[in-house]
Automatic annotation (TrEMBL):
Keywords: 4Fe-4S, Iron, Iron-sulfur, Metal-binding, Molybdenum, Nitrate assimilation, Oxidoreductase. One of its GO terms (cellular component) is membrane. Residues 8-64 form the 4Fe-4S Mo/W bis-MGD-type domain. Belongs to the prokaryotic molybdopterin-containing oxidoreductase family. NasA/NapA/NarB subfamily. One of its GO terms (biological process) is nitrate assimilation. This is Nitrate reductase. It comes from Derxia gummosa DSM 723. The keyword Metal-binding applies. Its cofactor is Mo-bis(molybdopterin guanine dinucleotide); [4Fe-4S] cluster. The chain holds residues 3 to 725 of 961 of the full protein. GO terms for molecular function: 4 iron, 4 sulfur cluster binding; metal ion binding; molybdopterin cofactor binding; oxidoreductase activity. It comes from the Bacteria.
Length: 723
């Protein structure tokens, strides 16, 4: 912190909301946060903040800390009832005892850790090592599985590594922005400001938006393509079909830098413009215009997010988009490339340390015996278990089936955010022990806790995060955590040290960290020689020079743009075309469930509203949840604007008002993801709680990425009255 007056201090840190990763300056006085402003030196935002970032200081005010924060560890004899406040030693002993006893009786895979893309890289590192290096289970996964895992699987399948190849600066070099399944105007607002700036500077820049909804982003487009939910693969293959016919592919690039094009060519032969137009619900002319804009662009940059990822064919969607870039040589040049936009602030950092059920440190692969041996050596353990762990949805299915007995949930609220809430809540009910580690009281998940551990939050934590463009930023504490709350990494270490005494007595500790920097330094060492090598970085470098891209090898400069030499991290050095067909959505519409429901974000809310929901001013834009429908569909059902409707899927139901909207087409509907049980409340006639939109969504997952299809559910909509 730098003292600017005798009473006011400023601390540079990073916004904890979205993956744009904006820098913030936190103002504090007398140990309390008094203000926040954008960090003018941060290369993600250059001083700007959106509505969420600019109100961060209000979520850290002392009054809110007293009412909305978990302040002491708690042991609960009865779930849902207030427990007994205990000291940290008693709580940590209880956690270690329960884990050790569960493993002794049922084996290591009877324990699961469910983490969060809101955690810092250092937090993730310790939890991952605790699970895989000490407990002996790979059952560690995260809500990032709901966010970017299809993008990761798509990159690895085609380019050979989990690494977005582009950077924000590419916005200024592109002459085509191809925005697909993303609404940056709401979900990545500061990036959208940069898009607007790029357009203002370069009127020749064309913007194509492909989305089932006419979003605010779509309003800025030169061409808006309103495809049917789930038809993206057909659309991209249809574009490639036209590019082939029109000779708009880059044969020299394909020959020099790729493999597998012949098979893809055979596949897309069947994706004729007529077939694709019918599958996507668009006209041939629009498809052709999109293909020509892409094929004739000098530098095409694709920006994409959950519309591609949250799908039971998410990997195929991502790969089909990357195919377009490879086929036209639109990659590895300024302004060109596929560029996934990360949803959460540190989904990327979590993957860097291998904090997922299928990964190991530094993007190593759990299925690779050499990688397991390397990590075991780096950690100083005998081995790392080989059996794949359970991914997010699988983990809760395993809990319900009695395979996982103890669940430790950190910094996330699965009783709102996971799909198919009936299954998730049945699983939480069935678990023998649920440990909830969180900063906030009142989450739906906390109700299931047997042990509650209070964690520190934004403005109190130290560490690092990585944003969408592979740039690592420091997170710095400006105030002390309230009550007994502790840093997440510290809680993990405290539990690990106790478990070491029980599971590997007499051996040197694996968790001898004096501070959070020691954790980061160990993580850095695991990256040596890997694609994300950060051996050229340190906290001191990040503090002196500001946020930096990875890779940044020792003695070298950070690399902002990847694959400029046309060499890819695959066995052959060539990028691979992926020939994966269009597959219809998992939850098909029928006469009983005739509407295609899609879900998404609003401008001023974040996730389940734990923080943003505490600020009245952030409800001005959208004061209550509503289902958006096409006015003609409402009229045919005799439903008036603002009336209450019952929305029912094959898994559950919810009640909410309806709003006529031109943003969705006939047959489609939209519900924002933010409002959970705390807001929609109430119970159905059969006693089932109305849990929010994820009562409706399906737990169907992509077979490669294991990401669930949160973006599509078949529903019916009926006029109703309050029960
Ligand atoms: Fe925070 Fe994202 Fe807004 Fe930037 S764009 S201020 S990172 S929420």
């Amino acid at each position: 912190p730098i003292a600017i007056t005798s009473a006011t201090q400023e601390t540079r840190s990073t916004c904890p909301y979205c993956g744009v990763g904006c820098g913030v300056v936190i103002e504090t006085r007398d140990g309390a946060v008094t203000g926040v402003r954008g960090d003018e030196k941060h290369p993600a935002n250059f001083g700007r903040l959106c509505s969420k970032g600019s109100t961060l200081h209000l979520t850290a005010r002392p009054g809110l800390q007293r009412t909305a924060r978990l302040l002491t560890p708690e042991l609960r004899a009865t779930r849902g009832e207030p427990g007994r406040a205990v000291g940290w030693d008693e709580a940590l002993d209880a956690v270690a005892d329960r884990i050790a006893a569960t493993i002794a009786t049922h084996g290591p895979d009877s324990v699961g850790l469910y983490l969060s893309g809101q955690l810092l890289t250092e937090d993730y590192y310790v939890f991952n090592k605790l699970a895989k290096g000490l407990l002996g289970t790979n059952n560690v996964d995260t809500n990032s599985r709901l966010c970017m895992s299809s993008a990761v699987a798509g990159y690895k399948l085609t380019l050979g590594a989990d690494a977005p190849p582009a950077c924000y600066e590419d916005l200024d070099h592109a002459d085509l922005l191809f925005i697909v399944g993303a609404n940056p105007a709401f979900a990545h607002p500061i990036l959208f400001r940069r898009i607007e700036d790029a357009k203002a500077r370069n009127p020749a820049l064309k913007i194509v938006v492909v989305d089932p909804r006419r979003t605010d982003t779509a309003e800025s487009a030169d061409l808006f393509v309103q495809i049917q939910p789930g038809s993206d693969v057909a659309f991209f293959h249809g574009m490639l079909h036209i590019l082939l016919w029109e000779g708009l592919i880059d044969e020299a690039y394909i020959a020099a830098h790729t493999e597998g094009f012949a098979e893809l060519k055979r596949l897309v032969r069947d994706y004729t413009p007529g077939f694709v137009a019918q599958t996507c619900g668009i006209d041939v002319e629009t498809l052709t215009r999109a293909a020509f804009l892409f094929g004739r662009a000098k530098a095409a940059l694709s920006l994409y997010c959950q519309g591609l990822n949250q799908s039971a064919s998410g990997t195929a969607k991502n790969a089909a988009l990357v195919n377009l870039h490879l086929a036209t040589g639109q990659i590895g040049r300024p302004g060109a490339g596929p560029f996934s936009l990360t949803g959460q602030p540190n989904a990327m950092g979590g993957r860097e340390v291998g904090g997922m059920a299928n990964l190991l440190s530094a993007h190593r692969d759990l299925t690779n015996p050499e990688h397991r041996a390397e990590v075991a050596r780096l950690w100083g353990v005998d081995d790392v278990p080989a059996a794949p762990g359970k991914t997010a949805v699988e983990m809760f299915e395993a809990v319900r089936a009695g395979e996982i007995r103890l669940l430790w949930i950190v910094c996330t609220n699965p009783a709102q955010s996971l799909p198919d809430q009936n299954l998730v809540r049945a699983a939480l009910d069935a678990a023998e022990c649920v440990i909830v580690q969180d900063a906030f009281t009142g989450t739906e998940t906390a109700r299931y806790a047997d042990i509650v551990l209070p964690a520190s939050s934004w403005a109190e934590k130290e560490g690092s995060v990585t944003n969408s463009e592979r740039r690592i930023s420091r997170v710095r504490p400006a105030i002390a955590a309230p009550g007994e709350a502790r840093a997440d990494w510290r809680i993990a270490v405290d539990v690990a040290r106790r478990l070491e005494a029980r599971l590997r007595p007499g051996r040197p500790t694996l968790f001898g960290y004096d501070d959070v920097e020691a954790v980061w330094n160990e993580h850095r060492e695991t990256t040596r020689g890997r694609d994300l090598d950060i051996t050229g970085l340190s906290y001191a470098v990040l503090d002196a020079d500001g946020p930096q891209h990875w890779p940044c090898r020792e003695g070298e400069a950070p690399v902002a743009r990847l694959y400029v030499d046309g060499v890819f991290p695959t066995a052959s050095g060539r990028a691979r075309f992926a020939a994966l067909p269009h597959v219809p959505v998992a939850d098909a519409i029928d006469a009983r469930h005739p509407f295609r429901l899609t879900t998404g974000r609003l401008r001023d809310q974040w996730h389940g509203m734990t923080r943003t929901g505490t600020l009245g001013r952030l409800f001005g834009h959208a004061p209550e949840p509503a289902i958006e429908m096409y006015a003609g569909d409402m009229a045919r059902r005799g439903i008036g604007d603002g009336e209450l409707v019952r929305v029912t899927s094959r898994r559950g139901a919810m009640l909410l008002p309806v709003r006529a909207s031109n943003a969705v087409r006939s047959g489609d509907a939209f519900i924002p993801m933010h409002w959970g049980e705390a807001y929609v409340g109430g119970r159905d006639d059969d006693g089932t709680a109305f849990t929010g939109v994820n009562a409706l969504t399906t737990g169907a997952i992509d077979p490669r990425s294991k990401q669930p299809e949160l973006k599509h559910a078949a529903v019916r909509v009926e006029k109703t009255a309050l029960p």
